[in-house]
Every structure is written in structure tokens, then in C-alpha cells.
């Protein structure tokens, strides 16, 4: 496995090596866990060359403390990626990766409204940064396939739109959420939880999973309110939003008949740590 920091070097290596081969790409912000490694294994097994980027992208953070405290351990990440057979790890340096203008001006993209809800509403500008970095990475790596986790449900919908709008010839593969045995969705941010918080945070998925067993017997509004109340009942958990949406348009629905693709997306603060999760109803 080779670690590369220069975009030009990665482009040159891939140009030289890729004839007749399929490149699979996994963009990450590092602090890798089993969820990332599951995606990395797929990128390795389904392609000839697997490339993973490890880059804490500053332009997608709208909170300075969040950016500063985001967990980082590139050496450990590289060891893990090597152990699953990844060929190239791309770890750019922000000041080289972006021009001064790119760092300072908000990247413009027509989200078709997908950024106006949920994460987009609570983290203004976040998805501009995500589209900016992923489109730039796609132009460098030019993969045949790219892998994204379904935990970041809105991000996946936005990446699919980006591929369509920007006409990337890349297959986007959404991968199911990987969970601890306790049900807690794996996330790099879990590293910031104390042991006690980790236990409390398991209630997020427990409540969501239970709600999926009886959703059709209640109204969307009642289910929405009962999920929030059931999670907030646990000391240390504070729901930021819970939206029950059409899985394609991300628009809130008000009846279970409104769509055949219905997902509940949630963000919960566990102490100061912001955790996201989702559950499929239909
Ligand atoms: O999901 C993430 O970790 C990031 O948003 C991504 C896709 C790597 C872009 O920085």
C-alpha cells in the first residue's frame, strides 16, 4: 500500500496503472472504524484497484470546535486500510488541495432543495463543502465506483444528485449502516463518547428500531413525537431533529401512504457529541 499526499502524483500513478482496470473509491475523514472497513473491503473485492482518501475536509465544518476536535489518527488509519488490501491512501494537505479562493468562498451547487432540510438546516454550508470535496476527489481519482454509508442518508442522496448534475460517470454504491452489538451506529464521533455515554447512546437505535415495529398503527405525527419523547427521556440525550421523509426527495411526509420509500432521520446530542442515525419504515 502506498500513502500519497499529492493529487498530481495520485493522478499520474492511476493514469499509468488503470488501463482495463476498475478503480473503486472510498472517501473518508479518517478515524476509521469497522463501518469504514466494511466499505473498504467492498471497494477492494469489487474492483481491481481500491483508493481511499483520508481528509478532514475543513470546508464542510460550520463549527470551528467541531473541526478542531474531530478525531485524527492517520497512521492507525493507514495500517487498517493496508490490512484490508487497499492499494492507495490519499491524504492531501488542505493548503495544497484547495486554492485560497476555494478555502474562502462557499462552493456553489444547485441541490434542488435537498440541502434545505435536516443536516442542511442545522449545519448551513455543510453540504456545499461535501460536494466541493467529493467532486474534487472524483476528478482526481476518476473511479468507476464510489462507496458511501447509508448512515449519512442525506449525504448519500446529495452525492447521487451531484453525480447526475455534474455528469460523473461513476456508480454510487450505498452501503448499509454497520452497528455495534448494542445497536449503536458506528461513527468516528463515538470515539469522543465516555463509556457511560456510549451506553446511553444505544437508546437512539433501540427507540428507532422499536418504532419501526408499530409505525403503521399510528399517525406520522404521533410516531414522530413519541420517538423524540422516548429518546429525550434518557438523561444525557437531546434530540436536535427527527424528520420522517420520502427517501428520495427528503421531503417530510404526513401520511404513511405518501410514499413507498420512507425513512426517519435523526440527530441526537449525547452530551456534546452529535450523533446521527436513521431507520427505514418502508
Ligand atoms: O462522510 C464523510 O466522512 C465525509 O462527508 C466525506 C464524504 C468523506 C467528505 O468529506
Question: Can you describe this structure?
Answer:
It contains 11 helices and 9 strands. The N and C termini lie far apart (41 Å). The relative contact order is 0.13. It is globular. It is 41% helix and 20% strand. The strands form 2 sheets. A 6-stranded parallel β-sheet has the order 1-4-3-2-5-6, sandwiched between helices. A 3-stranded antiparallel β-sheet has the order 7-8-9, with helices on one face. It has 282 residues and is of the alpha/beta class. The protein binds pantoate. Pantoate (PAF) binds at residues 27-29, 57, 60, 130, 133-134, 152, 155. The site of pantoate has 10 residues, from strand 2 and helix 8.
Task: List the helices and strands in order.
Answer: EHEHEHHEHHHHEHEHHEEE
Could you say which small molecules are bound to this protein? pantoate
Low-confidence stretches: none
The chain-level structural class is alpha/beta
Main-sheet strand order equals 1-4-3-2-5-6
Number of helices: 11
Shape: globular
The biggest sheet amounts to: 6 strands, parallel
Strand content: 15-25%
**DSSP summary, beta strand count:** 9
Question: TL;DR of this structure?
Answer:
By secondary structure, this protein is an alpha/beta fold. Helices cover 41% and strands 20% of the residues.
Amino acid at each position: 500500500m502506498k500513502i500519497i499526499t499529492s493529487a498530481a502524483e495520485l493522478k499520474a500513478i492511476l493514469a499509468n496503472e488503470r488501463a482495463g482496470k476498475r478503480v473503486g473509491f472510498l472517501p473518508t475523514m479518517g478515524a476509521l472504524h469497522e463501518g469504514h472497513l466494511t466499505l473498504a473491503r467492498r471497494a477492494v473485492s469489487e474492483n481491481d484497484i481500491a483508493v481511499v482518501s483520508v481528509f478532514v475536509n475543513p470546508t464542510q465544518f460550520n463549527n470551528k470546535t467541531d473541526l478542531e476536535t474531530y478525531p485524527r489518527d492517520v497512521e492507525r488509519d493507514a495500517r487498517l486500510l493496508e490490512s484490508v488490501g487497499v492499494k492507495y491512501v490519499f491524504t492531501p494537505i488542505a493548503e495544497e488541495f484547495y486554492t485560497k479562493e476555494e478555502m474562502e468562498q462557499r462552493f456553489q451547487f444547485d441541490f434542488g432543495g435537498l440541502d434545505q432540510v435536516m443536516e442542511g438546516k442545522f449545519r448551513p454550508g455543510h453540504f456545499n463543502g461535501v460536494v466541493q470535496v467529493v467532486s474534487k476527489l472524483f476528478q482526481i481519482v476518476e473511479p468507476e465506483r464510489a462507496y458511501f454509508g447509508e448512515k449519512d442518508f442525506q449525504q448519500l442522496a446529495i452525492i447521487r444528485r451531484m453525480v447526475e448534475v455534474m455528469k460523473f460517470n461513476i456508480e454510487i454504491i450505498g452501503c448499509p449502516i454497520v452497528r455495534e452489538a448494542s445497536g449503536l451506529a458506528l461513527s468516528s464521533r463515538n470515539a469522543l463518547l465516555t463509556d457511560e455515554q456510549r451506553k446511553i447512546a444505544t437508546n437512539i437505535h433501540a427507540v428507532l428500531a422499536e418504532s419501526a415495529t408499530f409505525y403503521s398503527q399510528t399517525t406520522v405525527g404521533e410516531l414522530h413525537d413519541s420517538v423524540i419523547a422516548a429518546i429525550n427521556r434518557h438523561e444525557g440525550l437531546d434530540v436536535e431533529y427527527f424528520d420522517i421523509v420520502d427517501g428520495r426527495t427528503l421531503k417530510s411526509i404526513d401520511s404513511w401512504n405518501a410514499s413507498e420509500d420512507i425513512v426517519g432521520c435523526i440527530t441526537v446530542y449525547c452530551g456534546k457529541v452529535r450523533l446521527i442515525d436513521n431507520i427505514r419504515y418502508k
